[in-house]
Amino acid sequence: MPLVALTGGIASGKSTVARRLAEHGAVIVDADRIVREVQQPGSPVLDAIAAEFGERMLLPDGSLDRAGLAGEVFGDPGAVSRLNAIVHPAVRAESAARFARAFAEDADAVVVYDVPLLVEARADDPWDLIVVAHAPAELRAERLIALRGLSATDAAARIASQVGDDRRLAIADVVIDTAGDMEHTLAQTDALWARLSGNGAG
């Protein structure tokens, strides 16, 4: 019943790795999806965001103005810290509940927490294995420009806003090199699955 943390910088191919593990039978718990769910209208988290950053963070239908909030906190470490203090505890509690539910349903499940901000928020949690999807920053910038339509300046800013690759790699038990072609990434992911499903996390 390994509990695996999967992380990687923006445009690192992390989602590709997660999808492949899901195809093999892993239970994927998506941190970004939990963030969106705990910020639904009427939630304590959304109420706290509005109280901290202003009612202007809410759209007319009462939902969170994600773009507005991102613009409010981007590049402001103090604002990011205040936002994280609101959001992270709720995400931690919900993710823990989902891990427990997955293992209750199948004691032998391989549960993978797909989490962009592992280094920033969850590095010290008791993971059985930390997997980092890794490609050089220059290549990830090229992907952001080609696949997501960002400008070179915006791509560089998005990458710079995250922790550096060295900090992610420093906590990795397994590194999946995503700089090559898709087959290379999938082959490494398949080997990881064989390890997780056959020999446990050790």
Automatic annotation (TrEMBL):
Species: Microbacterium terricola
Gene Ontology molecular-function annotations: kinase activity
InterPro entries (UniProt xref): Depp_CoAkinase, P-loop_NTPase
Keyword Transferase part of the UniProt annotation: yes
Lineage: Bacteria, Bacillati, Actinomycetota, Actinomycetes, Micrococcales
Database matches in NCBIfam families: dephospho-CoA kinase, PRK03333.1
Pfam families: CoaE
UniProt protein name: Dephospho-CoA kinase
Intracellular or extracellular location(s): Cytoplasm
CDD domains according to UniProt: DPCK (cd02022)
Pathways per UniProt: Cofactor biosynthesis; coenzyme A biosynthesis; CoA from (R)-pantothenate: step 5/5
EC number: 2.7.1.24
Class of the enzyme per the UniProt entry, highest EC level: transferase
